[in-house]
Design goal:
Elements lengths: L2 E5 L2 E3 L5 E8 L8 E6 L5 E7 L6 E3 L7 E6 L4 E6 L8 E9 L2 E4 L3 E5 L2
Length: 116
């Protein structure tokens, strides 16, 4: 069974930083691309960033480019999202996700709240 468990969210002031983690199990982690997706209060899902299975290529939404960094440690079956220069618009639940065999698996999410 695929399991994705996010952690690292919290309450942070504008301009602050956080590091989100996603621990993966139940599948061969280094065979699959991974992504971060977020959902702001009252809004739909927004793709944030993706990384290829090797970690060699990364992709970002324009809204986070230059502030967020996605990475993965295949030895630890863990996905990361380093988020810097946080803005109030970054307040959301952040999910990690992967797609395999036509189906998307999601974690339970971790809340990031940016407030002064």
């Amino acid at each position: 069974e695929v399991q994705l468990v996010e952690s690292g969210g919290g309450l942070v002031q504008p301009g602050g930083s956080l590091r989100l983690s996603c621990a993966a199990s139940g599948f061969t982690f280094d065979d699959f691309a991974m992504a971060w997706v977020r959902q702001a209060p009252g809004k739909g899902l927004e793709w944030v960033s993706s990384v290829t299975y090797t970690g060699g290529s990364t992709y970002y939404a324009e809204s986070v480019k230059g502030r967020f960094t996605i990475s993965r440690d295949n030895a630890k079956n863990t996905l990361y999202l380093e988020i810097n220069s946080l803005k109030s618009d970054d307040t959301a639940v952040y999910f990690c996700a992967t797609r395999m065999f036509g189906s998307t698996s999601w974690g339970q999410g971790t809340q990031v709240t940016v407030t002064s």
